[in-house]
Amino acid sequence: GVGPIVRRANLPNTSVVANASAQECRVIDTFMVGLEMELDMLNLRLHELDSVVDYFVIAESNVTGTGAPKEMVFWNRRSRFAPFLHKIVHVFTSEVPKDTKKYPSIIYL
Questions:
Q1: Contacts for 79 with CB less than 8 Å, ≥ 6 apart
Q2: Beta bridge partners of residue 28, listed in sequence order
Q3: DSSP 26-37
Q4: Tell me: the pLDDT tens digits for 42-92?
Q5: What is the DSSP string of 59-99?
């Protein structure tokens, strides 16, 4: 099956990914979004890999690596990626674990 990070995702299609049997092979691409300028790279990645990737896991947080609040860049602009939303699993966190010291949100994601 797929690891626990997918089970924390917040989109309806996650059950399809999480319920894959051991015999099924799936190609899963991951991408972490932190800044708005990274969306162009994500757009390119989605177009280039669409034919070979089953699911795209996009991770982001509403806090920076140092714990400062920030916008959910991908989530707020997800309509830009409408042709791919059926393949996207959006993984996010709004909490920072207290036991990490340096770049806590990156370590958590």
A1: none
A2: 55
A3: --EEEEE--STT
A4: 999 999 999 999 999 999 988 876 778 889 999 999 999 999 999 999 998
A5: EEESB-TTS-B---HHHHTGGGGGGGGGGEEEEEES---TT
